[in-house]
């Protein structure tokens, strides 16, 4: 099995560098993530004339205050109108266990117990969005962690005023996004599908 995976990966990378994306596409639809296929790394080495990596993914979550305030639709709309593709979506009551893994880097912070209480106070809407530089772009769209510092026009800048109720989560790096997506979603819950307007949102 490991040998077979290696073989597929090698073949895929060869095809990828040759500019033939058909093999990559078929592997992606078989459930291989872009990072597992070396997509992120390959993106950094491409020549100017080659296509951008439109398959980067990030985790966006509408936090309990956003759900309670009926902001889910407006938040989804912002990502749709920016041109990103929704590939996973679910509403859930997040468990302490999931959140302690999700926020593992913050365990020692004084606000951590209050953060856990807030995040378990009601349902969360978790989403995976896909597109070129979606991690960086969505952080800009979401705005500063502390809404006091968040620019008007960002989600936090428009809908919140306190760091303890900042409405939405967005992964902060491609590596973090991959870790968080695996934590919140099973592979079968993520869909690979082709946007019919793809050539209108970027050069593919
Ligand atoms: N947070 C808080 N008080 C703080 C800093 C952070 O309640 O002083 C919460 C807030 O909900 C924030 C989350 O902890 O979104 C995670 O913090 P992080 O530094 O990762 O910010 P983010 O990546 O969400 O902008
Ligand atoms: Mg963070």
TrEMBL record:
InterPro entries linked: NDK-like_dom (IPR034907), NDK-like_dom_sf (IPR036850), Nucleoside_diP_kinase (IPR001564), Nucleoside_diP_kinase_AS (IPR023005)
Positions that bind ATP: 63, 111, 139, 145, 156, 166
One Gene Ontology CC term in the entry: ruffle
Pfam families xrefs: NDK
Catalyzed reactions per annotation: a ribonucleoside 5'-diphosphate + ATP = a ribonucleoside 5'-triphosphate + ADP; a 2'-deoxyribonucleoside 5'-diphosphate + ATP = a 2'-deoxyribonucleoside 5'-triphosphate + ADP
Gene3D superfamilies the UniProt entry points to: Nucleoside diphosphate kinase-like domain
Domain Nucleoside diphosphate kinase-like stretches: 55-192
Class of enzymatic activity (EC top level): transferase
Single Gene Ontology BP annotation: GTP biosynthetic process
One GO MF term attached to the UniProt entry: metal ion binding
Cofactor(s) for this UniProt protein: Mg(2+)
Residues spanning the signal sequence: none
Keywords: ATP-binding, Cell cycle, Cell projection, Cytoplasm, Kinase, Magnesium, Metal-binding, Nucleotide metabolism, Nucleotide-binding, Nucleus, Transferase
Membrane topology: Peripheral membrane protein
Catalytic machinery residues: 169 (pros-phosphohistidine intermediate)
The keyword Nucleotide-binding is annotated on this UniProt entry: yes
Protein's cellular compartments: Cell projection, Lamellipodium; Cell projection, Ruffle; Cytoplasm; Mitochondrion intermembrane space
Enzyme Commission code(s) on record: 2.7.4.6
Name listed for the protein in its UniProt record: Nucleoside diphosphate kinase
Organism of derivation: Sander lucioperca
